[in-house]
Amino acid sequence: xxxxxxxxxxxxxxxxxxxxxxxxxxxxxxxLENALDAGARSINIEVEEGGKRLIRIVDDGxxxxxxxxxxxxxRHATSKLRTxxxxxxxxxxxxxxxxxxxxxxxxxxxxxxxxxxxxxxxxVEFSGGKLVAVRDIAWPGGAEVxxxxxxxxxxxRRKFLKSxxxxxxxIANLVQHYALANPQLSFLLVGNGRDVIRVAPxxxxxxxxxxxxxxxxxDKLVEVNAEAEGLRILGFVSNPxxxxxxxxxxxxxxxxxxxxxx
Length: 262
Ligand SMILES: Nc1ncnc2c1ncn2[C@@H]1O[C@H](COP(=O)(O)OP(=O)(O)OP(=O)(O)O)[C@@H](O)[C@H]1O
Ligand SMILES: [Mg+2]
Description:
The chain is of the alpha+beta class. Helix content is about 30%, strand content about 30%. It contains eight helices and twelve strands. The longest helix is centred in the middle third of the chain and has 18 residues, at about 165-180. The chain is globular. Bound molecules: adenosine-5'-triphosphate and magnesium ion. Adenosine-5'-triphosphate binds next to α2 and α4.
């Protein structure tokens, strides 16, 4: 008898979730990136108890058909990559087709969505990676992903999450990063019913930085705007007199992707 067995999908997804979903902020990151890839202009995020109890992200992007809304939860199912050559020219934030099945395998998840071409919307419900129901619903368009009770089926992972306050800070920092990287979009983050971040579409990076970081900080910064050899660098740097003990206030984005590197 052969000792090697191919893992069932539900188990493979749970293992993959270990890499994709470290904490509530990782869920917010994946869902935010999906909303951005879907061409959303406006993204609303609601969290309760540091995202452990609830994470809900609503976007006004292109949405999904009923068939796509179901297949999106298959592993390696993506609309963003077709051939090996595409890998060299990725223009989206996602491309692995891992995020939704991973998140669905460690939570109770609802997806509600509709494309502009469809009359009816679709609701897909998962629990611990199992498809519970697919329903027709009235839905205006775009997509909403609701993630409840993260890690409810992996108590050991749930136990190692930090306090609600700490997890909330991670989420707020993340949304701040994406808001800075996408000045033209509006973002709303509500935590336990209170507005944490609320920014309307801005005309420039400067205006967005003003909204997010405040005028007192921005006034001390020097604008950088340079272009050469196909590269464009845009942003703000501080004067040498400005001293900080940590790198927390350094925000670096490459092609709208947040990068943290020593
Ligand atoms: N908010 C959304 N609006 C429209 N389509 C979406 C949305 N979220 C996901 N999708 C669709 O579902 C597919 C699967 O999403 P998922 O996040 O699992 O994979 P991905 O974004 O392609 O890759 P990655 O795993 O790197 O994030 C996407 O390729 C996209 O077509
Ligand atoms: Mg994705």
